[in-house]
């Protein structure tokens, strides 16, 4: 296997890699992988490693960096705030100007009637809050039996015990002991995976299953359904247009809350500020993070309605808070980040460059290992297969292809076991989209059905 370190002659890169191997625990890194790619700087859609090699960041890190790397404006916003009031909490009656300013801005930006805001430091934290809000809402209204949560297989909601408990990949459950009880997993609306639907229409199948599940568990036992509008970790799984409107209507008829996990989709990624606008469905609780600060500082916001906020605060108050909730420096960076997204029209750029990139990637569909290309805005996936007729995944997964893209084409992107997941910064240009498409063609054109890149 080629590796950044075997290539690296630089003493700095090699020394950092040694220290990395000796100290850092990386997510998802098997022990046999000793190579490292050590990134040290970035600008726009590009990052550079310790040996000076440049890469195209086709993943906006993890679907986060909407405004691109190296924006000094955000560093100045953080420095200015840190020298004034770096941090205070928002527990009880204490508040701060930046948290108030950001909450007011989000309450205008978000679709009606999501007017109330709870700040977190990330996506999983946001989903913990959303799950607690949903259960507490019913509890305080006297419907104490409503504790069950509906989710979907292939969902990713983070790795807290609550958010991980509603995530629909076995890897977040196996070996960790009991996770959140009373969670029920439904079929994801994944049109490519026709075998899941026994020949039925995807939405009809999912809706029938949802209704049957609700009736089986008992509507008065169910607090909420949680879902990503477009599944990110699942591989940019875009549901049919009628799926969310029909799900929302059915849930409402049973008094079940809808939690929309917009941790990846919010703040422009799908070509709208929020994916809710794309699907025409406003949830009861919306969880956002990532793009709120473009990752320059960890932050997140949970948005909900006046009615739910009133119920979960009430005379007893909302009993749960994070140390960093309403962190003024994070809020200041978020405000400056939203300024850039607005000023530079990044949701519209995501739609336009996404159209172009989508057209270029559609050309890859002629390659034998490409099962499907799908996308919404700048959220895309290339599903890889060893056999297009049966849609069988590559036997050794997608990591070798991602490695080859990085080492041979200078492209960094994320993968899941079946697909290359592409979420570029929203400042991505048509030229960068072409470079990405050319790099993908060059590597996928040399990838065999055995998953090896020649
Ligand atoms: C849809 C979704 N929800 C939640 C999370 C978890 O966010 P975090 O890693 O900030 O906790 C992620 C992370 O990728 C995500 O994609």
Can you characterise this structure?
This protein has 454 residues and is α/β, with parallel strands linked by helices. It has two domains: 132 residues, Aspartate Aminotransferase, domain 1, CATH 3.90.1150.10; 272 residues, Aspartate Aminotransferase, domain 2. Helix content is 37%, strand content 16%. It contains 15 helices and 15 strands. The strands form three sheets. The protein has a seven-stranded mixed beta sheet with strand order 4-10-9-8-7-5-6, with helices on both faces. A four-stranded mixed beta sheet has the order 1-2-3-13. Helix 10 links the parallel strand 8 and strand 9. Helix 5 packs parallel to helix 12. The radius of gyration is 22 Å and the shape is globular. The site of pyridoxal-5'-phosphate has 15 residues, from helix 6. Pyridoxal-5'-phosphate (PLP) binds next to helix 6.
């Amino acid at each position: 296997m080629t590796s950044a370190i075997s290539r690296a002659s630089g003493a700095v890169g090699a020394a950092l890699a040694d220290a990395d191997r000796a100290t850092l625990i990386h997510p998802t890194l098997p022990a046999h992988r000793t190579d490292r790619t050590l990134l040290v700087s970035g600008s726009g859609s590009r990052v550079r490693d310790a040996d000076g090699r440049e890469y195209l960041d086709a993943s906006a890190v993890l679907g986060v960096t909407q405004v691109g790397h190296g924006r000094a404006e955000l560093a100045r916003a953080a420095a200015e705030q840190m020298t004034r009031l770096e941090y205070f909490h928002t527990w009880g009656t204490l508040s701060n100007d930046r948290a108030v300013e950001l909450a007011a801005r989000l309450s205008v930006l978000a679709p009606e009637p999501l007017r109330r805001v709870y700040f977190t430091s990330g996506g999983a934290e946001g989903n913990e809050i959303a799950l607690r809000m949903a259960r507490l809402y019913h509890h305080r209204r006297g419907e104490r039996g409503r504790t069950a949560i509906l989710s979907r297989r292939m969902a990713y909601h983070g790795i807290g015990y609550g958010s991980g408990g509603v995530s629909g990949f076995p890897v977040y459950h196996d070996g960790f002991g009991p996770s959140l009880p009373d969670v029920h997993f439904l079929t994801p609306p994944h049109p490519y995976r026709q075998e899941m639907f026994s020949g039925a229409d995807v939405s009809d199948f999912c809706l029938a299953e949802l209704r049957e599940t609700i009736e089986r568990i008992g509507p008065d036992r169910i607090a909420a359904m949680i879902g990503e509008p477009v599944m990110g970790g699942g591989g940019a799984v875009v549901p049919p247009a009628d799926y969310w409107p029909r799900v929302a209507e059915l849930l409402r008829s049973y008094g079940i809350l809808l939690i929309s996990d917009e941790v990846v989709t919010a703040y422009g990624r799908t070509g709208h500020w929020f994916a809710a606008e794309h699907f025409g469905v406003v949830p009861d609780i919306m969880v956002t993070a990532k793009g709120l600060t473009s990752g320059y500082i960890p932050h997140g916001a949970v948005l909900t309605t006046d009615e739910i906020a009133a119920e979960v605060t009430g005379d007893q108050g909302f009993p749960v808070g994070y140390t960093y909730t309403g962190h003024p420096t994070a809020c200041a960076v978020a405000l400056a980040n939203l300024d850039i997204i607005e000023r530079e029209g990044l949701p519209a750029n995501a739609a336009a460059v996404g159209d172009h990139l989508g057209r270029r990637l559609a050309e890859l569909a002629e390659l034998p290992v490409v099962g499907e290309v799908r996308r919404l805005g700048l959220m895309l996936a290339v599903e890889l297969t060893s056999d297009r007729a049966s849609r069988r995944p590559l036997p050794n997964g997608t990591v070798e292809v991602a490695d080859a893209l990085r080492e041979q084409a200078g492209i960094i992107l994320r993968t899941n076991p079946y697909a290359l997941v592409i979420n570029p910064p929203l400042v991505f240009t048509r030229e960068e989209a072409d470079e990405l498409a050319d790099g993908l063609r060059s590597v996928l054109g040399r990838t065999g059905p055995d998953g090896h890149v020649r």
